[in-house]
Amino acid sequence: MPKKRPPREVWIEIRRVVWERDGRRCVRCETSLTLKECHIDHKISGKLGTNKLSNLRTLCRRCHVLRMDMRHRGMIAKALEDGIIPANWRDLVWED
């Protein structure tokens, strides 16, 4: 996530716009998602990332967890516990 976060009210609207733009689906696996369950991913994260719509995409939880980005490693344990990803998750990691 970029260093500066937008106010919560602004982020809620950005999430909705990105989700609708992406057809209410994960752009990777095309699973249909509700606004509540979607994850908004920064294509470029960290200091170089922005909250511009062109840098954001809708992912399902599974695809978000499996994206090759060191910032996402904190989600692995919970996803394993919840059965979202299998024990061999390393074979499924993707990058773009």
Concise summary:
It is globular and about 35 Å long. By secondary structure, the chain is of the alpha+beta class. Strands 1-2 form a two-stranded antiparallel ribbon.
What brief labels describe this structure?
single chain, 96 residues, alpha+beta, two-stranded antiparallel sheet, 3 helices, 2 strands, 8% strand, globular
For the sheet with most strands, the description reads:
2 strands, antiparallel
Termini separation (Å)?
A: 17 Å
Unreliable residue runs? none
How much strand? 5-15%
Strands across the major sheet, in which order?
Answer: 1-2
Helix count, per DSSP?
3
Mean pLDDT rating: 91
Structural shape:
globular
Using only C-alpha atoms, the radius of gyration works out to: 13 Å
The tally of strands reads 2
**What string, H for helix and E for strand, traces the elements in order?**
HEEHH
What is the helix content?
A: 25-40%
Structural class: alpha+beta
Molecular structure report:
The mean pLDDT is 91. This protein is α+β, with helices and mostly antiparallel strands and 96 residues long. The protein has helices at residues 8-21, 61-66, 76-81; strands at 39-42, 56-59. The chain has a two-stranded antiparallel sheet with strand order 1-2. It starts with 7 loop residues before the first helix and ends in a 15-residue tail after the last helix. The chain contains three helices and two strands; from the N terminus they run αββαα.
Strand-helix topology:
Layout: H1 8-21, E1 39-42, E2 56-59, H2 61-66, H3 76-81
Antiparallel strand pairs: 1-2
